[in-house]
Design goal:
By secondary structure, the protein is mostly helical. The protein folds into two domains: 202 residues, Orthogonal Bundle (Citrate Synthase, domain 1), CATH 1.10.580; 97 residues, Cytochrome P450-Terp, domain 2 (Cytochrome p450-Terp, domain 2). Helices cover 57% and strands 3% of the residues. The protein contains 16 helices and three strands. A three-stranded antiparallel β-sheet has the order 1-2-3. The relative contact order is 0.14. Acetyl coenzyme *A binds next to helix 15. The site of oxaloacetate ion has 6 residues, from loops. Belongs to the citrate synthase family. It comes from Gracilibacillus xinjiangensis. This is Citrate synthase. One of its GO terms (molecular function) is citrate synthase activity. Pathway: Carbohydrate metabolism; tricarboxylic acid cycle.
């Protein structure tokens, strides 16, 4: 038996949802550039779940279904109030809230195709309410109900802040949602597929995926990038900081990728947005620092900035609390996880690889009194 550390380069599934070929990302054959410039998040959700773009009626129906399913049980809010909310990470809270939500869903264990489609809508709709309700309860405020007629992106900001966002704010969130929606067999998506390949239910698959996304080598990197920028503080400190980290063999968050070698095609869209928003808000230093770090790491190590790198300064300009960055990633990635879960169910086989045993052999049991 031979092993590939971290399964690098191993092709573990077939998918019709997204692909990364020669550092180009496509969703169902549409380039991420095309979608980021033109599509609403709702269109992308439809695309990932149905493998085609919706017509006007289909899109309107999906928007309506999402809006109608955004309300969350009061038990979720009571649960947020039942522990020391300031001491927990929102990703931990999201993981538990989604698992809890499954207990309120009478169809949670109904594995029929129709029930799974209904749960898909419910999960995608409710995640925005769960993330925003958590944030508001933590701030000592009441959760806000979604507003009819607003897009998913706008409703997220509305439920978070209680104000209808500007066009630019809505566009920034919509673009971020489109860019984060799916990414082939990344760690959290793989986790969700492994989970549901046992024929476990969709809530379990999504809860498992949230758990995998939480780590700083994956989705947790966006928050870590902002923490790094805050630690650096000013543009002139950026290069000395990064050089010291590199000398100590520490990783620079938001840089590097398992698959992309020349560049993450999503990063340029977030970089452009970061430049625009930081300049609009007089926060240029966050962009300047980021660019200096990106250029240095690219030149020194040949590593590209990934999707998490510039999203940090974008969300900072929108006044979003730093520990909500990864839940926002999850909110978008729900669409991809759900698409992969449905695809796994369609043609399922248990995922069960092998491990090469490298431990001691031929051991003899020794009585506990003699150890
Ligand atoms: C949405 C996403 O999940 S995107 C990824 C988000 N994660 C991050 O931004 C965290 C920082 N980046 C990393 O840790 C890595 O680049 C990963 C986890 C994304 C990919 O890692 P892998 O493909 O396993 O690469 P691995 O960790 O083995 O690193 C290979 C080499 O590049 C170096 N390297 C990789 N990433 C970085 C980094 N961010 N900063 C400095 N060096 C790095 C490693 O130190 C290693 O160097 P060496 O060969 O001299 O020892
Ligand atoms: O694909 C990966 O390994 C990580 C990533 O960029 C993502 O999930 O968006």
């Amino acid at each position: 038996m031979s092993t590939t550390k971290g399964l690098e380069g191993v092709v573990a599934a077939e998918t019709k949802i997204s692909s990364i070929i020669d550092d180009q990302l496509t969703y169902v054959g549409y380039t991420i550039d095309d979608l980021a410039e033109n599509a609403s998040f709702e269109e992308v959700v439809f695309l990932l779940w149905n493998k085609r773009l919706p017509n006007k009626e289909e899109l309107a129906q999906l928007e309506k279904d999402l809006f109608n399913n955004m309300a969350i049980p009061s038990g979720i809010i009571d649960h947020f109030k039942s522990y020391e909310i300031h001491k927990v990470h929102p990703m931990g809270a999201l993981r538990t809230a989604i698992s809890l939500l499954g207990l309120y869903d009478e169809e949670a264990d109904d594995m029929s195709e129709d029930a799974n489609k209904r749960k898909a809508i419910r999960l995608q709709a409710k995640v925005a309410s769960v993330v925003t309700a958590f944030s508001r309860v933590r701030d000592g405020k009441d959760p806000i109900q979604p507003k009819e007629g607003l897009s998913y992106a706008a409703n997220f900001l509305y439920m978070l802040k209680g104000e209808i966002p500007s066009e630019l704010e809505e566009e920034a969130i919509n673009k971020a949602l489109v860019l984060h929606a799916d990414h082939e067999l990344n760690a959290s998506t793989f986790t969700s597929r492994v989970c549901v390949a046992t024929l476990s239910d969709m809530y379990s698959g999504i809860t498992a995926a949230i758990s995998a996304l939480k780590g700083p080598l994956h989705g947790g990197a966006n928050e870590a990038v902002m923490n790094m920028l805050l630690e650096i503080g000013d543009t002139e400190n950026a290069l000395p900081y990064v050089k010291e980290k590199m000398a100590n063999k520490e990783k620079i968050m938001g840089m590097g990728h398992r698959v992309y070698k020349t560049g993450d095609p999503r990063a340029k869209h977030l970089k452009k947005m970061s430049k625009e928003l930081t300049s609009l808000h007089g926060m240029e230093k966050w962009y300047e620092m980021s660019e200096q770090i990106e250029e240095y790491i690219k030149a020194e190590k040949g590593l590209p900035a990934n999707v998490d790198f510039y999203s940090a300064s974008v969300y900072h300009c929108l006044g979003i609390k730093h520990d909500l960055y990864t839940p926002m990633f999850a909110m978008s990635r729900f669409s991809g996880w759900i698409a992969h879960i449905l695809e796994q169910y369609e043609n399922n086989r248990l995922i069960r690889p092998r491990a090469e045993y490298v431990g001691p052999e031929q051991q003899k049991y020794v009585d506990i009194n003699e150890r």
